[in-house]
Amino acid sequence: MITKRQLGLFFIGLAVLAIVGSFVYDFLGGGQFSGIGPAQRLALIGAGLVGFVGITLLPLGDRPA
Question: Residue 65 falls within a domain, yes or no?
């Protein structure tokens, strides 16, 4: 059974992976913008929200999710 702490760590890992992936995609030359474009900005905001939810789950400990 998965605990809330494990779920929080999963969400944080997913958010970090999305943020890193977004910047790697930008580094490889994907997209039409020379900086952070609007779609990438929305993806970063979404990843930040997922990470925030993960952080809020960490203190809940070993209770089942």
Answer: no
Number of structural domains, the chain?
Answer: 1
Please, are residues 14 and 49 in contact by the beta-carbon 8 Å criterion? no
Instruction: For residue 17, tell me if it sits in a domain.
Output: yes
Could you tell me if residue 19 is inside a domain? yes
pLDDT reported for residue 35: 76
pLDDT digits 0-9 by tens, 10-47: 999 999 999 999 888 888 877 677 777 788 889 999 99
How many Cα neighbours within 13 Å face the side chain of 18?
19
CA atoms within 13 A on the CB side of 2: 10
Between CA 4 and CA 20 the distance in angstroms is 24
pLDDT for res 31 = 67
Residue type for position 35: G
- Asked whether residue 21 is domain-assigned, the answer is yes
